Model the fold of this input.
Amino acid sequence: MKKSLSIILILSLLLNITGCYSFQQISVDDRSEMIDIESKDVKITLVNGDIIHSEAFHHIYITNPSEFIFGSGRKFLKNAKLSEPYNGKIFLSEIDSSAFDKSKRVYTIWLKSKDKVTFPKGDYFIATDQTEKGFWYWDMNQTNKIDLNDVSMIEADKLNTITTALLATSGIIIIGIALIVEAFGENGFMN
Done:
């Protein structure tokens, strides 16, 4: 039993180290690949060789300027005392009021639906109809726009189905072998 448990733990560690996700190049020219880029970690290589890493929901590709707030925070439902993670876009038309609490460093938005969304400083981006089209990323200190002409390559964190399938298949085979060896190993195969 100890061997089986050890093998399962080693496989779990292997899965965590290698992961099922890897960075895969996406085409800047293919708008369909850029649509859901906000929900993925990205690595941007600029023409000058600089590399920019941006976590999911800390960047956005704006094609049609409009008024919204985008980011990662917590949503408090009107009839519940619990909160849930919130990642996404809130349009100005959905907002009742908002305020920034300097002491807590949190931007709070009260929605017309009576729900409340909070964003820690550096985890949100405010766009207006004057915001330029392009790729924007932000952190605690600043917001930056990248001109797509300066981009050599954009890679997004995507599910690597081949690696995932190989790891799962290998894991099943190894666990199966371990269970067979454990069942027959102690008593002998022919006993």
Notes: The helical segments are 2-18, 31-34, 161-185. DSSP finds three helices and 13 strands in the chain. The two ends are 20 Å apart (CA to CA). The longest helix spans residues 161-185.
